[in-house]
Amino acid sequence: TLQTPYYLLDKSVLLRNLEKISYLRQTSGVKCVLALKAFATWSVFDLMAEHMDGTTSSSLYEVKLGREKFGGETHAYSVAWADHEIDEAIAACDKIIFNSVSQFERYAQKAEAQNKKIGLRLNPGISHSHFLLADPARPFSRLGEWDMDRVTPVLDRISGVMFHFNCENDEYESLDTLLKAIEERYGEILHKLEWVSLGGGIRFTNENYPIDTLAKRLKDMSERYGIQLYLEPGEASVTKSTTLEVTVLDTVFNGKNVAIVDSSTEAHMLDLLTYSEYTSVAPNTGPHTYIVCGKTCLAGDIFGEFQFEHELKAGDRIAFLDAGGYTMVKKNWFNGVQMPSIAVRHLDGQVELVKEFTFEDYAQSLS
Amino acid sequence: TLQTPYYLLDKSVLLRNLEKISYLRQTSGVKCVLALKAFATWSVFDLMAEHMDGTTSSSLYEVKLGREKFGGETHAYSVAWADHEIDEAIAACDKIIFNSVSQFERYAQKAEAQNKKIGLRLNPGISHSHFLLADPARPFSRLGEWDMDRVTPVLDRISGVMFHFNCENDEYESLDTLLKAIEERYGEILHKLEWVSLGGGIRFTNENYPIDTLAKRLKDMSERYGIQLYLEPGEASVTKSTTLEVTVLDTVFNGKNVAIVDSSTEAHMLDLLTYSEYTSVAPNTGPHTYIVCGKTCLAGDIFGEFQFEHELKAGDRIAFLDAGGYTMVKKNWFNGVQMPSIAVRHLDGQVELVKEFTFEDYAQSLS
């Protein structure tokens, strides 16, 4: 058995998501590129690449990782490119998507010289997001061009646009309403484009999501404007595929029962801290209630309050569910807490340890 | 000139803090151990070790780093130790401080067998903290023993206790009030102990902090109970010593002027995101107002809204102040954004690049 903590990625669950992605691609004609910002554990990219068209990125390093480890179409997007990285980004990508007209003006000629397709991110000023922090249409958002007077003059030099306007959107009706507004506002220019990316944040791999309705909607939209549509699933690609496996190290009672485990929200599942959310466990039933906490110095390092069938004691194992998206990509060495290993359960059931972190890795993260 | 982003640690400012720490040690008799959870950039440990007594820790890896790179007294504290790491922690430390009586009961015998001093963390149920998230006395806190009925039976096997009850406390009166309450509640047991750590979070290196008053207060307390007092400065050791040096990559106007720089709050100054705070710049004057944002996909990746003398343009440099504590220890690869290098300005003014991070480091952070 492996030493906790470790992320355990179950390829059979991953495959279920990927098969839904394939189904959507086949029935709608949409292309799906993995958003590496959510998930970049490249040891399973071979399986993912069989069901997805490529990757999209938020930085030069993600562009390079996508090109080297995933293949297929490599979309290079970044909120802002730097002079010293733009050549490498253009060389490694198939399309480059600029966040602003000023970035376009600074670098488009270099992309044209390499015959790379060029896109521009537009901000439609509308969105579906549960958090202001993550809302791309928040006031004064820097994410994409809002002003069509600035966009129109460069339209003939771009082949497509990207809208990213959903965060954890699991409501088809909401997506449909937003799409209608986008079509109404941008319909005229969509006709002139080759491709449009609708970004990520659409939870179409969830159970009960009306995937056929989505497929038809996207197919109709593609045909209406004569465009190749893209989606950029990140979390949706890996949802429910990964657990964070931890061990109880101590239990204390301070008015409530508290169990302390060998992990940390801030270091290993950062979004729980950022968005003040709890993770989940299964079955989460039984008469024993515990606040399950991490082992960092942070007073609020809390994974959640859960039910257990038995009293917890040191040595007991807990699996935190749905730890695939936005976890491994932002893990860090806070408090010097052991960084979780990464393990993969292959389709034949065999578990393979694919990554371990050592004291030397911790020491070398500083200087 | 170095490629941004990079943390720039100015040893001459660091030395100013260290000299205050030395002054406090000399005038009060208190010992000061560096809290590695806040700052663990070991390339300046040689200078720090001249002015501090050693280190304290939150994990096995911090214990080892303190022992190997800093020397002096090595305090081993962790919210919870694991069976597989306890022997190594005990071997590497001078004192081991348990967070609960149950951890004490599980491991004390091992420490006794190695003749290591043993301490226990007590939670006095009072604190100075601006944030519930960081408040060690928050309801149901797992940080330290609350129940003296559990502590009393093991008192004869410990030589000291640790209280950590301050977070960013720059008010001497508040500290004094809390100390009085602690002395009142625990006075009887303090007499029986060899040492007491008052933890970290006291900002006594700030300008205008009444350091002589603090020194006298601590000296009196030591003498009253016949104990060696410890403080555990983390942030206080490095305050104002470090900037995060960044470059403007793009400017956009969406109702306000926004400048996008080659860094990220979440990835490089995480506490700004966690505590919804802005960093600072100097002089922060002039007629031009900009929201300064990072380059990640996160809509709320905002360093602050600042004043500038001139319009900002791509290529301009900005230095974010006070980026030493709780930054480098929690930096991460979110979005694959270039991790800042670490540079040190030596006392002779020479700037040395002590750490760079590469694409290979990014790729190897995953698997």
Automatic annotation (TrEMBL), chains A, B:
InterPro entries to which the protein is assigned, alphabetical: Ala_racemase/Decarboxylase_C (IPR009006), De-COase2_C (IPR022643), Nsp_de-COase (IPR005730), PLP-binding_barrel (IPR029066)
Every Orn/DAP/Arg decarboxylase 2 C-terminal domain range: 240-324
Major localization class: cytoplasm
CDD domains, A to Z: PLPDE_III_CANSDC
UniProtKB keywords: Cytoplasm, Decarboxylase, Lyase, Polyamine biosynthesis, Pyridoxal phosphate, Spermidine biosynthesis
Gene3D superfamilies in the record: Alanine racemase, Lyase, Ornithine Decarboxylase, Chain A, domain 1
Necessary cofactors: pyridoxal 5'-phosphate
GO molecular function, one term: diaminopimelate decarboxylase activity
Gene Ontology biological-process annotations: lysine biosynthetic process via diaminopimelate; nor-spermidine biosynthetic process; spermidine biosynthetic process
EC number: 4.1.1.96
Catalysed reaction equations from the record: carboxyspermidine + H(+) = spermidine + CO2; carboxynorspermidine + H(+) = norspermidine + CO2
Positions of substrate binding: 235, 271
Any one of the GO CC terms: cytoplasm
Enzyme class of the recorded protein, top EC level: lyase
Pfam families named among the record's database cross-references: Orn_DAP_Arg_deC
Family: Belongs to the Orn/Lys/Arg decarboxylase class-II family. NspC subfamily.
NCBIfam families: nspC
Protein name per its UniProtKB record: Carboxynorspermidine/carboxyspermidine decarboxylase
Organism, scientific name: Pelagibacterium luteolum
